[in-house]
Amino acid sequence: MWILGLDTSCDDTGVGLVRDGAVVVNLVASQTLLHQRYGGVVPELASREHIQVIDGLVQQALNTAKIEVSDLDLVAATRGPGLIGALLVGYTYGKGLAFALGKPFVAVHHLEGHIYAALAEHPEVEPPFLALVASGGHTHLFEVKRWGEYHLVGATLDDAAGEAFDKVARLLGLGYPGGPAIEQLAYQGDARRVPLSVPLQGQEGFAFSFSGLKTAVARALEKGYAAADIAASFQQVAVEHIVQVVSRAARYYGLSTLLVTGGVAQNAMLKARLQAAGLRLLFPPKGLATDNGAMIALAAWRTQAQRPQNQLSLPAAAYLPLSPAP
Ligand code: KG4
Ligand code: ZN
Q1: What global pTM score does this model have?
Q2: Residue 263 CB less than 6 A away from ligand 1
Q3: What is the pLDDT of residues 199-219, one digit of tens each?
């Protein structure tokens, strides 16, 4: 069974092809260069760029897989959450294609896509487990109770984890996206030189908070600390915060398996510190951590491929909770 997966929720055009649950092609047209000079994603530019590239990218994916468009059995696209103008491009394209082919169209939640990306190489894993989605737009910790059933354990009270990396990078005069830039600079710095405190330390519950940290970084800059030392300290404290919250949740819920996904899952220090916390970790394979189309096809395969319902009448949604707030 061939599934085409499309994701245009933000600034990457993602087109993936999955055959019987295995990723065959995963193409991402990044808009990083387009948005870089603005220091963040400009929604209207993102939508226009998606329109420019999506059809060519789908053709390229089909060519790479050596199949015809008529070989597709199902088309899946991200319904939300995301930038509505951007979402609509992939979502409407997917609907149109499915309709023209007479094949089912399946709407996928973006965060469900991230979760299933981390399971691509772990078909043996069964719920329940914890899933942390940490990206530029989300810091959500879920308890995956059963396939397709999610309980929101905690979320950020302010900025998302990746957003904090991006904002701190901007303060330090580094490029966008900020996560990889901070990670690189941090290797040259000494975290001990810049005292920053771990957010919400000593508190109960499973909330995250990153905006105070961003303010503390701005103060440290004013005081004249070196950028590399600030980057090292910020990364250490942000990672420590995430590790503290998820460890507490793992104990509370009695779960020892943690899936980590989203762009921030690529952070080597986060990986190392979580490993040290004694959890069984599931990470997405390279190329599936950040936004992509294959993860959308994977989610459709796991949750809906057996009995696909045609969802042509479901509208896209910028705001779309995966589970009710705690
Ligand atoms: O999942 P993603 O590609 O897009 C969203 O859905 O947001 O995540 C991108 C985010 C950006 O904020 C970026 O700075 C962050 O993930 N990121 C990282 C790293 N690589 C990407 N944050 C920390 N360390 C990294 N190595
Ligand atoms: Zn994402």
Answers
A1: 0.90
A2: yes
A3: 999 888 999 999 999 999 999
